[in-house]
Amino acid sequence: MKKYILIIFFLFSSNYLQAQDNLKFYVKKALSNNLQLNAERKNFESAKQNKNISRSDFLPSITLSGDQTSTTSTNRTNQSGTSLADSNSDLESKKILVEQKIFSGFKGFNTFKKSDLETQKANLSLKKVEQQTILDTASAYFDLIFKSKNEEFNSSNVNLFERQVDSDSARLQKGEITLTDLAQSESSLAGARANLIKAKTKLLASKANFERVTREKSPDTKNLNEKALLILPNSFGESLELAKKDNLDILISKLDFEIAKKDLNIERARLSPSASLNYSKSENSDFSSTVDDTDQETVKATITWPIIKGGENISTIKKSSYNKQRFQLILQDTKNRINTEISNAWSKYQSSKSVLEATRAQLKAAEIANEGITLEYDSGNTRTTLELIQSRSLLLDARITFARSERDFVVSQFELSNQLGSLSIKSIK
User: Fold this and answer.
1) For the chain, which residues score pLDDT lower than 70?
2) Residue 414's closest CA among 322, 356, 341, 349?
3) Would you state the pLDDT for residue 291?
4) Residue 303: its H or E element
5) Closest Cα to residue 111, out of 54, 46, 52, 58?
6) For the whole model, what pTM was predicted?
7) 183, 134 in Cβ contact below 8 A?
8) Which of 34, 33, 412 has its CA nearest to residue 423?
9) If phi over 0 gives left and psi between -120 and 50 gives alpha, with beta otherwise, what is residue 76?
10) Can you name the residues that pair with 281 across neighbouring β-strands?
11) Residue 30 burial (CB < 10 Å; 0-12/13-18/19+)?
12) Staple 148 to which of 182, 221, 268, 423, CB 3.0 to 4.6 Å?
């Protein structure tokens, strides 16, 4: 029985660790822990309540009120100056008021539509922060992988030069190389150690940034899954068409323009007549000295039509009109800006793909060259120490450049997807 429990535990632990190595795991953590994102979620919930608030204008309002008054009259006299007895009176009244707006110049309708648009805008703002969080997480994730490789390459380079210095010291004693050759190796070792220190510092900074974005402890980078696939359009034209429909900046700018139009309609409605219907019922006890109890029912229809408020009405309409024109211009500017940003993101994606292929070929050539030069140097052939050092430096640069191009290519896909407005946790394969 214990054997089966151990097997189940091992399988569960393996699956859990494998899930932790996946980019999606850290994206989910970031989406859950990001404070700005949680603040946007609260803002969205708050915006939804505005719809309920504006909807209340179409519904009747009911008010209950009641009061009780106790009055004591003393030192009373009549017209002849004769004193009168003190008197006490207690007045109690209860009242219910029902009010229903009949017409308000479509102010209520436009206010409700405006609140609906504001709710949609809050939802888009939430999605925008979600997409930015995913992009930041992916950038931090793959940057951590690259910085880890960079540290690993530089550490391996230090080990190679340490062995070379030991080997050159022995060869110097045998007279196979000169003191200058040994000095070149020692100088290269010192430079390799300096580069390793820089690589370690960059790795620490990358880990700190990863933990800031995901609010999770930085993992062992050796176990991280370096693969991530996003479905992207096949052409620049297709990218532009997708961005017109899904880019969040464009959609938010469109909603700002629509909200501005509703504000203008609301201000115009303030100049329109409005009508309301009121019904009230009251009960009064000890109403007067001659009336003990009385009940009253009142139905009142009210029509108001504001004519002029010292020019305030006209000025607010003009202000709203200018505001609408402003958001219309901002919308056009946003479309132009997004076209440029899509062009830049597409170019970066295509160029990073080409750079990746070029650096892959560069790395392969550098590995072949270094292997040949190392064998020739170790065999005491005509290869000099300087040639060996240059070969290793070229190989190190090729490895770092290729690892960087891998990171840049993956991140460029996320940046393009973010510009298109299609970036989500479901889009990550």
Assistant:
1) 1-21, 86-87, 89, 103, 105, 286-293, 309-311, 381
2) 349
3) 52
4) strand 293-304
5) 54
6) 0.81
7) no
8) 412
9) beta
10) 96, 297
11) buried
12) 221
Strand partners, 93: 67, 284
Distance of CA 50 to the CA centre of its chain: 22
Alpha helix locations (H) across 175-306?
A: 179-214, 236-246, 248-269
Question: What are the residue ranges of helices labelled H in 247-384?
Answer: 248-269, 312-378
Residue 360: Cβ within 10 Å count:
14
Burial class (CB in 10 A: 0-12, 13-18, 19+), 4: exposed
When computed from its CA atoms, the radius of gyration of the chain, rounded to whole angstroms, is: 39
Rounded to whole angstroms, the Cα distance separating 173 from 168 reads: 9
Residues 6+ apart with CB under 8 A from 212: 140
Asked whether 228 and 176 are in contact (CB, 8 A), the reply is: no
The two three-digit tokens of residue 351, written as one number: 């160029």
SS3 63: strand
Q: Which domains does the chain have, with CATH numbers?
A: 2-63+113-272+310-427 (1.20.1600.10)
Cα separations (Å) of 386 from 40, 150, 169, 368, 377? 59, 23, 15, 18, 10
Torsion of CA 29, 30, 33, 39, to 10 degrees: -140
Token pair of 114, please?
């405006």
Residue 383, token pair as written in the block? 């290869």
